[in-house]
Amino acid sequence: MAHQSEELIIEALDLHKSFGDLQILKGISLQVRRGEVVVLIGASGSGKTTFIRCINLLEDIQGGRIRVNGRAMGYRERSDGSLVRDSERNIARQRRDIGMVFQRFNLFPHMTALENIIEAPIHVLGTPRAEALEQARGLLARVGLADKASHYPSMLSGGQQQRVAIARALAMKPQAMLFDEPTSALDPETVGEVLHVMKELAEEGMTMVVVTHEMGFAREVADRVVVLDQGEFIEQGPPEQIFSRPRHPRTRAFLSRVL
Ligand SMILES: Nc1ncnc2c1ncn2[C@@H]1O[C@H](COP(=O)(O)OP(=O)(O)OP(=O)(O)O)[C@@H](O)[C@H]1O
Ligand SMILES: [Mg+2]
């Protein structure tokens, strides 16, 4: 989008990830600049979720480097070049820089929308309650839910819950947001309202990596579309290039199935 700079917010370098003997990510690299919106597409099982989870250290990696906002995430390098996982405490601190929104909303069911949003700022960042409340009300307004502050998740539609989840992630003032199929569990009529909020976020300059099957969103909002196939990035470029002139046969095959 318009706000892009040269500053790298997310850098994944030569990531290797296996589950047991099964190699899932085969040495993939991605650099995301501040303000950039990267949409990640690819067939089911290609490793999209795994990649997103690795960036946020929800998965161990067997090789490679991750830097967020210029800082190494989760690993220290020994003198022999091997990687040692950082302490959980340090990892938790680093993870705060990245907001994550999943397919399932994962709101705390026993808390209202407002309480869901203030929980982490108060308990993790130590924000004073009054300040957290004011900020949360602002965030609810930003996602179009100013009137739902005291609703519990069960009283909200899927799309509304997902917008609360986005507001909750934003309350931590993240450097970047990762979305893993944020609309694929929603009723079709509520997909648009969530994509709308995401589009506004992008326009405001948020750095975003979005896994989605919403090709209309990708076309309209992405600065760059990256195609993952069997654990490798096979092609990337601006949306019009990927959708109108895909080069790789497996990109063409994938697009012909989803478009
Ligand atoms: N915890 C796990 N243990 C073992 N294998 C796993 C685990 N998580 C994922 N996998 C395997 O890793 C591969 C990639 O899975 P991943 O969920 O990253 O794919 P995806 O691209 O997100 O697919 P989808 O579009 O269906 O969400 C799959 O073969 C999957 O079975
Ligand atoms: Mg997935």
Tags for this entry?
alpha/beta, 259 residues, 27% strand, binds magnesium ion, 4-stranded antiparallel sheet, 6-stranded mixed sheet, binds adenosine-5'-triphosphate, single chain
Reconstruct the topology from this structure.
Blueprint: E1 8-19, E2 22-33, E3 37-41, H1 48-55, E4 63-68, E5 71-72, E6 75-77, E7 83-85, H2 88-95, E8 98-101, H3 113-125, H4 129-142, H5 158-170, E9 176-180, H6 188-203, E10 207-211, H7 215-221, E11 224-229, E12 232-237, H8 239-244, H9 249-258
Output the radius of gyration.
18 Å
The DSSP helix count reads 9
Average pLDDT over all residues: 94
How helix-rich are the residues, as a percent range?
A: 25-40%
Class of secondary structure makeup: alpha/beta
Largest sheet: 6 strands, mixed
DSSP summary, beta strand count: 12
**Strand neighbour order, sheet with most strands:** 8-9-10-3-11-12
Oligomeric form: single chain
Name the poorly predicted regions.
Answer: none
First-to-last CA distance: 24 Å
Q: Note the overall shape.
A: globular
**What is the N-to-C succession of helices and strands?**
EEEHEEEEHEHHHEHEHEEHH
Q: How large a portion of the residues is in β-strands, by DSSP E?
A: 25-35%
List cofactors, ions and other ligands.
adenosine-5'-triphosphate, magnesium ion
